[in-house]
Amino acid sequence: MLWKLFLQRTRMKRDVEMRDTQRQRLVLILIMTGAAFVVVFLAIFLLYRTAFEEEKARLIETAQSQARLMEAVARFDSVYSHNYPEGTEAATLSQFIEAHKQFKGFGDTGEFILAKRVSDQIKFLLSHRHSSLMIPDSIPFDSPLGEPIRRALKGQAGFMVGPDYRNVTTLAAYEPIEHLHLALVAKIDLAEIREPFYKTGLLAVTVGAGVIGASIVLFWRLSNPMVEEITHSRGQLRQLTHRLQAIREEEQTRIARAVHDELGQTLTALKMEITCLQDELDPDNPEHKQSSDTMTRLIDQTIAAVQRISTELRPRLLDVFGLPEAMKWQTQEIQKRTNIEFDLQGIDQHVKLDAERSTALFRIFQETLTNIVRHAQASRVSVSLKQENRHIVMEVQDNGIGIRKHQIHRPQSLGLLGIRERALVWQGKVRFHGAPGKGTTVTVKLPANSK
């Protein structure tokens, strides 16, 4: 009956592990998907920044070259165009405006702006590519729509991202033409620079989502049999471990009972026979008396050894008085061999468990104390055992050197692995917490008796 109950619990545990594994796979897939999209968008962003910087360099170079060209033409006209009716500056402007009529701009939205300041107004001298007017209306000098032109008219040269005369965000390079007191701006809409990258990003998301979706389905189908096989193997190993532990406990109990009952009774009867024999020996013969005393002492030592071995194999206190008393006995035995002090005030005497859970917790407690004696270098250990809602919680805390994180999951830590496996059989949890120089705390939490 108990074995069937254990198998039922194991199947439930395997189902839970399967769901946990599926969640872990899903989280892994989401992480990989997120990482893939991050890489794609990072690549697109870097390409966009490169295109932005290249366009910026082109606009600056174009504005500078056109401004310097106009200055050179102006200097030439100042020497050789005195016959132009409206003056040399007008001659230069007329040549530039005539050349501009043949220029269709760069890209879909790129254009030049040429303007001068007239009182508190900015007067445009070229027809705009995006305006139906031959010459657009002037705008106030302090208008937020003319920032690149305003800066150039102040004698500044540079590059900026800001609104143009249409209130559209543009990349603009501006240069002053000092000889003519004019301003030149070469600009292009920011949206034109971004548009291909927006389209590429949308295409990457669409195609990537399809590819990743297909990959997820394929990965899930291919990995599902392997995950099920691994989960099934873990369940089988856990069943085998529990069965071996149960067989060992049964064998130890049988041997302990046989040693205590049969060998103990035989030794007791032998001692009684020797006692009767002593009454028949010659009291005046010291050799006989010494031999009988020695035999009696050896039998007493053997009886004590038999009781100790029997108790170590299977403490009768655990079966007769329960887990709390067995834990107290175990600490007393360790205290006889070491200088460790035990604080047992946290042990609740009213905790009741079935035989299997009591055995599991007691063996975990024994292994924990063994680790403390071997490795912790502790002088004091506090033990608590209590029931919290539907769980039994055992906590063992020492003041030793403290366990390190890398030691908890180290393959060589077979004792800790055994503690975990014993708890997992009953769907329990084990937590190891340690800090260098501040000791180690082992907390075990098992479900209480099932009804």
Automatic annotation (TrEMBL):
EC number: 2.7.13.3
The name this protein goes by in its record: histidine kinase
Record keywords: ATP-binding, Kinase, Membrane, Nucleotide-binding, Phosphoprotein, Transferase, Transmembrane, Transmembrane helix, Two-component regulatory system
Uppermost EC category: transferase
Listed transmembrane segments: 26-48
InterPro entries: HATPase_C_sf, HATPase_dom, His_kinase_dom, Sensor_HK_TwoCompSys, Sig_transdc_His_kin_sub3_dim/P
Start and end residues of each Histidine kinase domain: 258-450
GO molecular function, one term: phosphorelay sensor kinase activity
GO cellular component terms attached to this protein's record: membrane
Species in which this protein is naturally found: Nitrospina gracilis (strain 3/211)
Chemical reaction(s) catalysed: ATP + protein L-histidine = ADP + protein N-phospho-L-histidine
